[in-house]
Structures are given as structure tokens and as C-alpha cells.
Amino acid sequence: MIYLVIYDISDDSLRLKVSKFLKSKGLRRVQWSAFVGDLTTSQLRDVESGLTLIMKGKMKEGERRNVQIYPLTERQFQQRIVIGVLDERGEENVLM
Amino acid sequence: MIYLVIYDISDDSLRLKVSKFLKSKGLRRVQWSAFVGDLTTSQLRDVESGLTLIMKGKMKEGERRNVQIYPLTERQFQQRIVIGVLDERGEENVLM
């Protein structure tokens, strides 16, 4: 099954950790804070528990820290509408 | 059908315009740069053409300007995994 992972993480280093983690699990970036991957149920559990671990810890005042994972079919992914420029670079490419 | 709209727009005023537009079309914010709405096909076309119009125009060097719209079933939306704090405030609540 395909999963779309979108995240809103205001802390720069945490956000970079999340994007590197998702890449390490074979997901592919489709937007600055969005990744897609074809995962088995156990791979999904692995991603979910890994993210939960990374995101643990006390939040600072006003900090935003949220990840959402949506199941999609291949057909729904193909049906997606893209408006504007697809920029598959990410922070790890830009910041490095 | 439910649609998840995710956007990566680096220009502050353009990003605010997009979020206000999506709200005006009845979509609900689920993350800082993500909205969800139950739309008919013609409502979807209306959202797509409105976003295309808003996003038109020359981009500055290094600017990011991308919107993606994913179809989802109600069940898939219910199955979504949320990790971390759900913060349904948005820029228009914070900046105002």
C-alpha cells in the first residue's frame, strides 16, 4: 500500500532528522515536507514507531510538531493533481 | 470524495492567500500547510482553477511554489495515523 507522510515540524534539526529517517526507510520526497512510499504493514509500523521515537520529548512554547500518514492506492497517487513547480530537493540537499 | 490538499509555498503572502482561499471553499485545515475537504467533481475543478490562478506569475530565484491534491476515501481519512500534536491553528490565526 502506498502511504503519504506529511509533517509540520517547526524545529529545524528535528525536521531534518525526520526527513533523513523517512529517506532511510525508502520513502521518496514529493514536496518539501511530504514523502511517499510503498510499504508493507510491518514497514508502516516500523516507520510509525521510528517517527514516534524521534518526535518524543518536551516541546517548546509555540513549537509545532505533527506528522500524519495517509494510506493511498497506486491509482489515487496517479490521480493526484500537481499545481506549480515540483521541487524534489529537500533540506538535506539545500542545507548541506 | 475527500481531497487532501498539501502545499509548499515559500512566499508568505502567497501562502496566506492559498490558505484563505482553501478556507473560503470550505476546506478544513489538518496541518499548517494541509487542508481536507469533501468536494464534488465541479467543486474540485473550482478549487484547482482557483489555485492555478493564485499561483500564476513569475517565481523568484529559489522560491518554492507547489500544491498537490490527493483523492481519499472517508475510510482512508479515518485510517490516517497522527503523531504529535494536532495544531489546527494556521497562519491567519497566528499572524492576525
UniProtKB/TrEMBL annotation, chains A, B:
Record keywords: Metal-binding included? yes
E.C. designation(s) = 3.1.-.-
UniProt xrefs under InterPro entries? CRISPR_associated_Cas2, Virulence_VapD/CRISPR_Cas2
Q: Name one GO biological process term.
A: maintenance of CRISPR repeat elements
Q: Which keywords does the record carry?
A: Antiviral defense, Endonuclease, Hydrolase, Magnesium, Metal-binding, Nuclease
User: Which Pfam families does the record match to this protein?
Assistant: CRISPR_Cas2
Task: Please give the cofactor(s) recorded in the UniProt entry for this protein.
Answer: Mg(2+)
Q: What class of enzyme is it?
A: hydrolase
Task: Cite the GO molecular-function annotations of the record.
Answer: hydrolase activity; metal ion binding; RNA endonuclease activity
Quote the record's binding site residues for Mg(2+).
Answer: D8
Q: Please describe the quaternary structure of this protein.
A: Homodimer, forms a heterotetramer with a Cas1 homodimer.
Give the protein family. Answer: Belongs to the CRISPR-associated endoribonuclease Cas2 protein family.
Record PANTHER family? CRISPR-ASSOCIATED ENDORIBONUCLEASE CAS2, CRISPR-ASSOCIATED ENDORIBONUCLEASE CAS2 3
NCBIfam families in alphabetical order = cas2 (TIGR01573)
Q: What does the record give as the function of this protein?
A: CRISPR (clustered regularly interspaced short palindromic repeat), is an adaptive immune system that provides protection against mobile genetic elements (viruses, transposable elements and conjugative plasmids). CRISPR clusters contain sequences complementary to antecedent mobile elements and target invading nucleic acids. CRISPR clusters are transcribed and processed into CRISPR RNA (crRNA). Functions as a ssRNA-specific endoribonuclease. Involved in the integration of spacer DNA into the CRISPR cassette.
Full protein name: CRISPR-associated endoribonuclease Cas2
Q: Which organism is it from?
A: Metallosphaera yellowstonensis MK1
